[in-house]
Amino acid sequence: MIELVDIHKRFGANEVLSGVNLAVKKGETVVVIGRSGCGKSVLLKHIIGLVKPDSGRIMVDGADVTGLTGEALYTVRKRFGMLFQGAALFDSLSVWENVGLGLLEHTAMSEAEVRVRASEKLALVGLTGVEDARPAELSGGMKKRVGLARAIAMDPEVVLYDEPTTGLDPIMADVINELIRTLQATLKITSIAVTHDMRSAYKIGDRLAMLYGGKIVFHGTPEEIMRTRDEAIKQFIEGRAEGPISVH
Amino acid sequence: MDTFQYAGRSLIASLADVGAAFLLLASAVRAVPAAIKEKQLVLEQMLRIGIGSMPLVLVTSIFTGGVSAVQAAYQFQDYVPMRYLGTVIGKSVVIELGPVLTALVIGGRVGASIAAELGTMKVTEQIDALETLAINPVRYLVAPRLLAGVVMLPVVTIFADFVAILGSWLVALVGLNVSTHTFFTGLRLFFHASDVLNGLIKAFFFGGIIALMGCYHGMRTEGGAEGVGIATTRAVVSSCLLILITDYILASLLFRAVFMG
User: Fold this and answer.
1) Of B117, B130, B132, the CB nearest to A80
2) Which of B126, B131, B132 sits opposite A90 (nearest CB)?
3) What is the CATH number of domain A2-238?
4) Interface confidence (ipTM) of the complex
């Protein structure tokens, strides 16, 4: 359904992505793992057009969406939802307005209807009674869940997760992982997540892809990655300081 | 050589800045019709830019008016009859002091707050989040602020003109022994409605400059709290400079014909 073909991206002198190829099938969950700052988030943002590649193509359902701008790009984006690392809630809006903003802007639904829909989505992520709160009043885990409710508010076909568990305590991280799994199972959403949290990667991913040195160096199931002989990949998934990946 | 390179690079960077700001202006103007449909967003900004600035403008204008009276009287003494006090003050307030000082004060207050707000939204990925919801940030954030700026600056300027004249009248009456009758007769002498109008035309442009600079520097903020600080400073400095430069250009265009006629 989504295909990244030979994506290159450089920021100044720093080449972040040097030929990334990745294909995601409909309904599956692919988790891109890699060290902090290796370009995972940049990769994710390419898919939804927040970052444009220097070269390469992004295909959605066989159509090239790489160079799209304006309304054409927005039409594609309506099929996507994205959960940001810091949740990126609009702090001038209440929780239900955050969740319902897409609906308020793009549909003819009344405020009352949107509010009901927002409450439903919030209930899906396990939140009730916070509709009128401001994002600043919420804890980190609640913000993530509101962000998730916002990402699925427009019933997207694809949800992108940028570090869904970063900054959360282990229990809350697991709650978020469970939520992501449940949403996949119930809503049949295609998902792409980037994370450096291996526990989360194993839990939510049907397939894992490791980004290292600007390229995808491994692509396979969680079982396959656990059996790998590649020292660099082993070093990362086992979380060791010593190994071929130098730490600077 | 290095100095030349540095100067050249700075020049190119500044030109690129000007170009990018104009591009933002162009897309914001194109987004205005769509922005008007969401009255709530525009009204919010109008309240914030206009009504929210009233107390500050009240204080600056009343003292500006007062000091104009004091300074004019000082320069008039022994040479110019006091019945021209109102004339000079009225003219200088509606043509120059009202629009420019109001714009500088609001530029500091509103320009900074727009840049800080949008800058924080940028670094916390809220602007990206808008994009992912297929909401154009220029239409949702920039156009309402631009619209509110160009509408509310003239409104606040009218208020500032009144208050400044009020302040100068109070000072003339209490401090300079100029009677109310003398002051207002002077004010009406050579009073042209076109002067007020030209002052408001200037305010319209100043409002656009303040909103545009706040949005432009806010939207291109990079790198956390420090970046927001830099963006805020740039927004205020660039809007103040542009207000003064534009004031000169507009004064040359709007008032020259009057002088020659």
Assistant:
1) B132
2) B126
3) 3.40.50.300
4) 0.89
